[in-house]
Design goal:
CATH class of the largest domain: Alpha Beta
CATH superfamily of the largest domain: Longin domain
Strand order of the largest sheet: 2-1-5-4-3-6
Helix content: 40-55%
Distance between the termini: 104 Å
Low-confidence stretches: none
Number of domains: 2
Strand content: 15-25%
Radius of gyration: 31 Å
Structural class: alpha+beta
CATH topology of the largest domain: Beta-Lactamase
Largest sheet: 6 strands, mixed
Mean pLDDT: 84
Number of strands: 6
Number of helices: 7
CATH architecture of the largest domain: 2-Layer Sandwich
Length: 222
Protein backbone atom coordinates (compact mmCIF):
# COMPACT_ATOMS: atom_id res chain seq x y z
CA UNK A 1 0.00 0.00 0.00
CA UNK A 2 0.96 3.65 -0.41
CA UNK A 3 2.36 4.85 2.91
CA UNK A 4 3.93 8.22 2.28
CA UNK A 5 3.64 10.78 -0.50
CA UNK A 6 5.61 14.00 -1.01
CA UNK A 7 5.35 16.57 -3.80
CA UNK A 8 8.33 18.86 -4.35
CA UNK A 9 9.81 21.45 -6.67
CA UNK A 10 12.83 20.13 -8.52
CA UNK A 11 14.54 23.48 -9.11
CA UNK A 12 15.52 23.97 -5.47
CA UNK A 13 14.29 20.74 -3.82
CA UNK A 14 11.54 22.62 -1.97
CA UNK A 15 8.83 20.27 -0.59
CA UNK A 16 5.44 21.63 -1.59
CA UNK A 17 3.00 19.17 -0.03
CA UNK A 18 2.71 15.79 1.64
CA UNK A 19 0.00 13.21 2.08
CA UNK A 20 -1.52 12.05 5.33
CA UNK A 21 0.63 9.74 7.40
CA UNK A 22 -0.12 6.07 6.67
CA UNK A 23 1.76 3.46 8.69
CA UNK A 24 0.63 0.13 10.05
CA UNK A 25 0.60 -0.72 13.73
CA UNK A 26 4.09 -2.24 13.74
CA UNK A 27 5.57 0.94 12.28
CA UNK A 28 3.36 3.46 14.01
CA UNK A 29 6.00 5.61 15.67
CA UNK A 30 7.11 9.19 15.10
CA UNK A 31 10.80 8.40 14.67
CA UNK A 32 10.25 6.03 11.77
CA UNK A 33 7.83 8.36 10.04
CA UNK A 34 10.29 11.28 10.39
CA UNK A 35 13.06 9.08 9.00
CA UNK A 36 11.00 8.07 5.96
CA UNK A 37 10.03 11.71 5.36
CA UNK A 38 13.68 12.78 5.53
CA UNK A 39 14.61 10.04 3.08
CA UNK A 40 11.96 11.27 0.63
CA UNK A 41 13.30 14.82 0.99
CA UNK A 42 16.83 13.50 0.45
CA UNK A 43 15.70 11.86 -2.79
CA UNK A 44 14.13 15.16 -3.88
CA UNK A 45 17.42 16.94 -3.20
CA UNK A 46 19.39 14.35 -5.17
CA UNK A 47 17.04 14.84 -8.14
CA UNK A 48 17.48 18.61 -7.82
CA UNK A 49 21.29 18.34 -7.95
CA UNK A 50 21.17 16.01 -10.95
CA UNK A 51 22.51 13.03 -9.01
CA UNK A 52 19.36 11.02 -9.82
CA UNK A 53 17.41 10.80 -13.10
CA UNK A 54 14.95 13.64 -13.67
CA UNK A 55 12.21 11.42 -15.13
CA UNK A 56 11.24 8.43 -12.97
CA UNK A 57 12.87 5.82 -10.78
CA UNK A 58 12.37 3.10 -8.16
CA UNK A 59 14.61 3.11 -5.09
CA UNK A 60 14.72 -0.02 -2.93
CA UNK A 61 14.79 0.37 0.84
CA UNK A 62 14.64 -2.82 2.89
CA UNK A 63 11.02 -4.04 2.68
CA UNK A 64 9.86 -0.83 0.98
CA UNK A 65 10.39 1.09 -2.24
CA UNK A 66 10.36 4.76 -3.11
CA UNK A 67 8.93 5.50 -6.55
CA UNK A 68 8.95 8.90 -8.20
CA UNK A 69 8.12 10.73 -11.42
CA UNK A 70 8.97 14.27 -12.51
CA UNK A 71 6.69 16.44 -14.61
CA UNK A 72 6.97 20.15 -15.45
CA UNK A 73 9.60 20.75 -12.78
CA UNK A 74 7.56 19.05 -10.05
CA UNK A 75 8.49 15.71 -8.46
CA UNK A 76 5.96 13.23 -7.07
CA UNK A 77 7.43 10.69 -4.63
CA UNK A 78 5.66 7.83 -2.89
CA UNK A 79 6.75 5.12 -0.48
CA UNK A 80 5.16 1.67 -0.83
CA UNK A 81 5.72 -1.79 0.57
CA UNK A 82 7.94 -3.83 -1.74
CA UNK A 83 5.09 -6.28 -2.23
CA UNK A 84 2.92 -3.53 -3.70
CA UNK A 85 2.84 -3.69 -7.53
CA UNK A 86 5.27 -1.18 -9.00
CA UNK A 87 2.94 -0.56 -11.94
CA UNK A 88 0.15 0.53 -9.60
CA UNK A 89 2.53 2.80 -7.70
CA UNK A 90 3.35 4.62 -10.94
CA UNK A 91 -0.32 4.73 -11.95
CA UNK A 92 -0.97 6.39 -8.57
CA UNK A 93 1.77 8.94 -9.22
CA UNK A 94 0.49 9.67 -12.71
CA UNK A 95 -3.06 10.22 -11.44
CA UNK A 96 -1.68 12.44 -8.70
CA UNK A 97 0.38 14.44 -11.20
CA UNK A 98 -2.60 15.01 -13.51
CA UNK A 99 -4.91 15.97 -10.64
CA UNK A 100 -2.57 18.40 -8.89
CA UNK A 101 -1.03 20.07 -11.91
CA UNK A 102 -4.49 20.35 -13.44
CA UNK A 103 -5.99 22.15 -10.45
CA UNK A 104 -3.13 24.19 -9.03
CA UNK A 105 -1.81 27.50 -10.33
CA UNK A 106 1.56 26.54 -11.84
CA UNK A 107 2.80 30.12 -11.51
CA UNK A 108 2.22 29.88 -7.76
CA UNK A 109 4.04 26.55 -7.63
CA UNK A 110 7.17 28.26 -8.93
CA UNK A 111 6.82 31.30 -6.65
CA UNK A 112 6.32 29.87 -3.15
CA UNK A 113 9.30 29.87 -0.80
CA UNK A 114 8.09 28.05 2.33
CA UNK A 115 8.18 24.23 2.63
CA UNK A 116 4.83 22.42 2.50
CA UNK A 117 2.88 25.54 1.54
CA UNK A 118 0.04 23.66 -0.18
CA UNK A 119 -1.82 22.20 2.79
CA UNK A 120 -4.95 21.64 0.69
CA UNK A 121 -3.03 19.09 -1.39
CA UNK A 122 -3.22 16.67 1.52
CA UNK A 123 -6.91 16.04 0.94
CA UNK A 124 -6.43 15.53 -2.81
CA UNK A 125 -3.55 13.14 -2.23
CA UNK A 126 -5.70 11.18 0.26
CA UNK A 127 -8.61 10.90 -2.16
CA UNK A 128 -6.42 9.55 -4.95
CA UNK A 129 -4.68 7.17 -2.56
CA UNK A 130 -8.02 5.57 -1.61
CA UNK A 131 -8.36 4.29 -5.17
CA UNK A 132 -5.12 2.31 -4.81
CA UNK A 133 -5.44 0.81 -1.33
CA UNK A 134 -7.01 -2.42 -2.57
CA UNK A 135 -5.02 -3.87 -5.47
CA UNK A 136 -7.88 -6.29 -6.26
CA UNK A 137 -10.49 -3.74 -7.28
CA UNK A 138 -11.75 -4.01 -10.85
CA UNK A 139 -10.10 -0.73 -11.77
CA UNK A 140 -6.69 -1.71 -10.43
CA UNK A 141 -6.85 -5.22 -11.88
CA UNK A 142 -7.67 -3.69 -15.26
CA UNK A 143 -4.60 -1.48 -15.02
CA UNK A 144 -2.39 -4.44 -14.12
CA UNK A 145 -3.83 -6.60 -16.89
CA UNK A 146 -3.40 -3.82 -19.43
CA UNK A 147 0.27 -3.57 -18.49
CA UNK A 148 0.80 -7.34 -18.46
CA UNK A 149 3.78 -8.36 -20.55
CA UNK A 150 5.02 -4.77 -20.72
CA UNK A 151 7.94 -4.32 -18.38
CA UNK A 152 8.05 -0.68 -17.30
CA UNK A 153 11.25 1.09 -18.36
CA UNK A 154 12.17 2.37 -14.93
CA UNK A 155 15.67 2.61 -13.49
CA UNK A 156 16.19 0.94 -10.14
CA UNK A 157 18.70 1.75 -7.43
CA UNK A 158 19.20 1.18 -3.72
CA UNK A 159 18.99 3.81 -1.00
CA UNK A 160 22.21 2.70 0.67
CA UNK A 161 24.11 3.07 -2.63
CA UNK A 162 22.71 6.56 -3.23
CA UNK A 163 23.62 7.67 0.31
CA UNK A 164 27.11 6.18 -0.05
CA UNK A 165 27.70 8.08 -3.30
CA UNK A 166 26.58 11.31 -1.66
CA UNK A 167 28.97 10.75 1.27
CA UNK A 168 31.87 10.08 -1.10
CA UNK A 169 31.09 13.19 -3.11
CA UNK A 170 30.91 15.35 0.01
CA UNK A 171 34.23 13.92 1.22
CA UNK A 172 35.87 14.75 -2.11
CA UNK A 173 34.49 18.30 -2.00
CA UNK A 174 35.78 18.75 1.55
CA UNK A 175 39.22 17.43 0.59
CA UNK A 176 39.40 19.74 -2.42
CA UNK A 177 38.40 22.71 -0.28
CA UNK A 178 41.07 21.92 2.31
CA UNK A 179 43.70 21.55 -0.40
CA UNK A 180 42.82 24.84 -2.05
CA UNK A 181 42.88 26.66 1.30
CA UNK A 182 46.50 25.59 1.82
CA UNK A 183 47.61 27.17 -1.46
CA UNK A 184 48.01 30.78 -0.35
CA UNK A 185 49.76 33.36 -2.50
CA UNK A 186 51.35 36.57 -1.25
CA UNK A 187 48.45 38.62 -2.58
CA UNK A 188 45.99 36.42 -0.69
CA UNK A 189 47.86 36.55 2.64
CA UNK A 190 47.73 39.78 4.71
CA UNK A 191 50.76 38.58 6.71
CA UNK A 192 52.91 37.97 3.65
CA UNK A 193 51.79 41.25 2.16
CA UNK A 194 52.81 43.08 5.36
CA UNK A 195 56.24 41.43 5.33
CA UNK A 196 56.75 42.39 1.70
CA UNK A 197 55.83 46.02 2.35
CA UNK A 198 58.19 46.18 5.34
CA UNK A 199 61.29 44.67 3.72
CA UNK A 200 60.92 45.82 0.14
CA UNK A 201 62.44 49.32 0.71
CA UNK A 202 65.37 47.88 2.67
CA UNK A 203 65.99 45.32 -0.05
CA UNK A 204 66.00 48.05 -2.72
CA UNK A 205 68.46 50.18 -0.73
CA UNK A 206 70.84 47.24 -0.25
CA UNK A 207 70.56 46.30 -3.92
CA UNK A 208 71.29 49.92 -4.94
CA UNK A 209 74.31 50.09 -2.65
CA UNK A 210 75.74 46.87 -4.06
CA UNK A 211 75.29 48.15 -7.62
CA UNK A 212 77.00 51.47 -6.71
CA UNK A 213 79.99 49.76 -5.04
CA UNK A 214 80.34 47.39 -7.96
CA UNK A 215 80.25 50.28 -10.44
CA UNK A 216 82.94 52.22 -8.52
CA UNK A 217 85.11 49.10 -8.38
CA UNK A 218 84.85 48.62 -12.15
CA UNK A 219 85.68 52.29 -12.79
CA UNK A 220 88.75 52.18 -10.52
CA UNK A 221 90.08 49.15 -12.40
CA UNK A 222 89.62 50.91 -15.71
Amino acid sequence: MVKLTIVGRVRDALPLAKGTRYLNDEEDDDDLFSQRKQQAEFILNEISTGSLPSSKMTIRLHSHSFNYIVEDGVCFITLCESSYPTRLAFHFLQDLQKELLGKLDRTLIHKVSKPYTFLKMEGMIGNIRKRYIDTRTQSNLSKLNADRGQEPKVETDYMYAIVERRHRLEALKKKALMTSSRVVTASDSPLLELIALKWMPITLVIFGAVVLVWSNLILSIL
